[in-house]
Records
---
Amino acid sequence: MYQITADRPIRWGFLGTGGIAASMAADLHHGNNMLYAVAARDADRAAAFAARFDASHSHGDYRSVVEDPDVDIVYIATTHPFHRDQALMAIDAGKHVLIEKPLTLNAAHAREVLTAARDKGVFAMEAVWMRANPLILKAQELVAQGVIGDVVAVHADFSIEVQFDPAHRLFDLDNGGGALLDLGVYPMHFAWLFLGRPDTQQVLGTLSPTGSDATVALQWGYDSGPTAQLRCATTASTPGRATIAGTAGSISVEPWFLNPRRLVVTTSEGESRVDGDETAYGPQIEEVERCLRAGLLESPRVPHADTIAILELIDQARADLGVRYPGEA
Ligand SMILES: NC(=O)c1ccc[n+]([C@@H]2O[C@H](COP(=O)([O-])OP(=O)(O)OC[C@H]3O[C@@H](n4cnc5c(N)ncnc54)[C@H](OP(=O)(O)O)[C@@H]3O)[C@@H](O)[C@H]2O)c1
């Protein structure tokens, strides 16, 4: 019903004109895609964004984009607390949706959104762009081929230094503040790709003065033996390299595992490198286009079940740390 087979650009409608919206708009030249419409809470800001990125339509309200029959897919680029309602509005209007990470504030809301998309027969995906990156896919392929043997350990850390400011979205609980939802999703999805759902999760962390999670260290355990050490923080930057260690070698994903430039593979035969280009959001955009033209309701690169499972683990970690968002039970 919603398959887009015609050889014409996929017409994107953006909700929100902040930092990530600009980064995605700059990469929409990948594949056969175009920014068609954009909405912001402020009509002038939407118009300025549309002018900057060559969109033909701009609006001062989100509903106008969602209800525009010429928009194929709605990209939700607002801050996390607004993803759920905006996604439900778009899905209800019969639109495909790409929703920024984290899909929603918690797993219950993610189930609600993804169930609604499935019931409506529209495509939905959490924008975990790392999972479409060619070098990440290459690392998965090497592991599946047994190049490093059985995976025994994963390490990944995404931490940045942000000066504490109670109004900054990373610290403001009303705006979904916290390291886990903003940064932690990446090391968690990374470990998930190579080890899957952990049998146990242990959490250490500290809170900022507003009660948002500021530093979080997660230890994932697997009954069959492997472990994963994952970390995220808003208090200090760390190198951002990740490693996958196996019984016969290791892969280092460098220099920044979210958007790597190279894999360094070490086995008993020595060290080899797989180099890649800086790809940013292009592979994610191309994956969404591929899914829409094929009539898929979810991307095999970012399955709905993984999105929900990672949010369940974040729910558990937040409960252990005592981080609760307004309106949550
Ligand atoms: N994939 C990635 O690499 C990546 C990178 C950064 C962020 N993200 C994700 O993308 C989302 C947006 O992050 P960002 O850094 O782009 O955020 P941002 O620039 O601070 O805000 C994005 C937009 O959200 C809306 N918004 C912000 N604060 C609001 C508030 N208090 N009330 C109502 N609406 C508000 C605004 O929309 P209007 O323009 O309509 O006013 C704003 O332009 C987050 O969920 C984040 O996790 C992803």
---
Amino acid sequence: MDYTKISNDEILKWLKEHLNEERYIHTLGTADKAKDLALQYNLNPEKAYIAGLLHDCAKCFDNDKLLKIIKEHLEVEECEMLNYKTLHAPVSAYIAQKEFGVEDSEILSAIRWHTLGKLEMSDFEKIIFLADKIEPNTRDKDYREKIKGFLKEENGLNKAILKCYKETIKSLVKRDLKICLLTIEIYNKLQDLVN
Ligand SMILES: [Fe+2]
Ligand SMILES: [Fe+2]
């Protein structure tokens, strides 16, 4: 089934033109990892590959462009406006739909929430979230191995995502940055799910 209105080759060409080299390599790694995780968890590998391919498509847009698209077309969480680094997620979902013709709601939602996460995440959303964190092309090896270790356990998706939230929260505290209430809520919910 076609999940986009143009071919994967054309998407790759667009990405090469709109992302820097490191982000392009990260994108290819995320798409492959998303496909692997989909196979591991009995989800649709083709859909996962597309979601991985497009998850960061707006990552290299400048802030003015991101804010303009958001202002004109989207609603975002208040805490997303506090950290401009997170704004590419809703805009990437928007571009996936407008530029590439993605209509599948699971793909769009997985892209939309890949930075912040959300309280009710489907397994599909979870694997895209994780693929972004553990793709081998640009992510730190020790970190990847730790997360992958959790994936071997029972309830592995939740355990792996909880680990990601722990690391994110630690890093925010270390850098003296604010933490979104939603991040804390998701962390608490994951604690309930794994304990
Ligand atoms: Fe991202
Ligand atoms: Fe990413």
---
Amino acid sequence: MRLMDRRHFLETCSAHAACAPTGLSASACSSAARGIASLASLASLSTHALAADALPKNYGRVLLTDERGDPLKARSLKPQVNYIFHYPFEATPVFLLDLGKAVPALKKDTLRTEAGDAYAWPGGVGKARSLVAFSAICAHQLVYPTQQLSFISFRKGKPVQAKTPDAGADLIHCCADHSQYDPAQGAKVMSGPAKQPLCAVLLDHNAKDDTLTAYATLGGELFDAFFKKYEAKLSIEVGSKARQAVAQRSVVKELERYCKNPVKC
Ligand code: FES
């Protein structure tokens, strides 16, 4: 049986089976079968289209606070200084940066996950649209900043050990294998072995009280791989709450205060 005949046969059979108890005529049933098939086909197309886009993944809304536990004022952030908070899980660190300049949104297709899913990125928030946040888990082999050691961080200016004279400035640099990400372009990969941008963390800025709330991620999440790779380490560092969702508030610290040994390379 040719493919189309076979498909028609299966559609008709399933519609007849469904219609028999209703008493519909054979032609009404065939017509219903075609309608059902069209709807199924549209649904499948629509599912496929969605799969090709990386959409924001909403987690709980988490207010960013200073180290005293008071709501962090966006204006208190120093430009081009590396801050850390945790979101969406207790053990998953995020870079928070005031890039000191307006950061425009990027249209869809500028950024893609390793799986090829395209996404638009909303750019900076805050009064000057200069505030951005990205997961601090390197998209190459999941290196991340801990309280003891950090191989990945934002570098104001050029990296200390820039491999080429035209190495980019003001990038997030991972010293493990020298992946570089541009936080002004949605953490797009500028060089190195990483295959996708750092996952973005979306922020809401409340202009009235100048506070920041994290509410979603966007892009290639690596949390499952991260928890799998570091399960034993995280259970010692963070304990049983490592994979617990951050509840309501997350403390923002300068990387230099959060980590004892921020490695520069
Ligand atoms: S783990 Fe970051 S570049 Fe390899």
---
Amino acid sequence: MRGNVIIIGGGFGGLSAGALLSKSGIPVTLFESDTVLGGRAKCIEKEGYIVDLGLHANRFGDDGPAARVLKMVGQAITFAHKKDRTSYVYQDGKLIKRPNAIEDFLQTELVPEESRQALLQTVFAMVAEDPADWYEKALLQFVEQHTQDEHVKRFFRLLGFTIIAPDIETASAGEVISFIKNAQMAKEPLAEPVGGAKQIIDKLESVIRSTGGEIKTGTRVERIELQDGKAIGVTAGGRLYTASAIVFTPPIQHLFQFIKKDYFSPDFVSYAENLEPTSGVSIDFGLRKPVADMEGNIICLDPVVLGSFPSNYDSTLAPAGKQLSTWLMVVPYAEAKKGPTLKNALDSLRDFIRNLYPTFFDNVEWERPLAYLILDGVHLKVGQTRKDRHSIQSPHVRNLFFVGDTAQGDGCSGDIAFDSATKAAPMIQDYLATARNQL
Ligand SMILES: Cc1cc2nc3c(=O)[nH]c(=O)nc-3n(C[C@H](O)[C@H](O)[C@H](O)COP(=O)(O)OP(=O)(O)OC[C@H]3O[C@@H](n4cnc5c(N)ncnc54)[C@H](O)[C@@H]3O)c2cc1C
């Protein structure tokens, strides 16, 4: 009998791990406390709109980590291809085109003409670097090695924002370099699934179910149970479910709600409790008539805002003649921890939108404001990069595996969840095979 696996959590990470394991013939049971799958990427249907949790950008399209997981389980993502990928940066009171390709850097109005050569040289220098040499150095350090031009430094905050780390004083240069290199190689740097993240979630769910895996939604895991230093299963709804291995996918900051700290080293406990996430607020809007026709995004660095009108490139997301718009404001975690800051950020975000589109709020049918202390599980600053984070297989409890956007996967945000699942699946298979041979 092959060992069975319990997966805690039905977000990108848990569903990916579940689909990969189930497809390879390993019996899985996935527990999700919510009644709906998707976790921080869950989607709702509301008055004819399909609404992701805020804007859910899918990086590198068919070459990205989400598409890779789906390919591994025999599926493909159907993308909504944009006709016009122009995105805009709101800077100095106006919307300025964001350069799409390196050639565009020599014309970009985001820096004055006299700074463009320095910008181009610094970007060229960046793509020639090996990310591994730069993970533990800040983006600002990289830029200052090439130029002291303040306009170029400001531009590099935009590159930091690609990994949700516009604070170039602390953002890891290696993580940004890795992102830029992947974006250069991808046919499409950003390509969204038709119907939003739900397409990915539904496909992963169907793979698990069709290969004999079990999904228990609305079932909260209360504890991970251990015996002689090994996880033996979980307690959920007052009942013990046993397993040969357990995959934990909520952010690692929540681990000790499930398992006693005593099983781990003090260094690991301190690391897991103090790993800094990104924080922020989002507002999704149903608009009774279109307010803007752009298919790209709007980015602002001061305040840090990302906006989009997703129904412009994917008409399935809003009823005919109406428009879906979604906005995100990133708030430093240290600030967000003080509760009122997040509420104030929602007001600032509304003011930002009103300033940009004075008639926007005349057209709002409904809005959904949300605040998150954990937006991305990890802020990709120096000391928290892929090489610094906890290993996928716990060194303390050998049959406990960590998957999700705080684990040791590549990329940023949801990409880490997908990538860590692809790394975890063979490790779990090896562990189960070895454990079986030892019997
Ligand atoms: C507003 C917003 C916008 C974002 N935008 C982007 C973006 O543009 N691009 C991008 O790549 N990423 C984005 N992200 C981040 C992305 O959503 C996450 O990185 C990703 O969804 C994390 O997946 P995960 O599986 O690691 O964790 P989660 O999605 O958090 O999954 C963990 C799951 O565990 C479940 N769980 C927790 N406790 C229990 C329990 N006791 N028992 C059972 N189940 C439990 C949770 O309900 C959850 O479903 C955004 C996030 C937010 C909030």
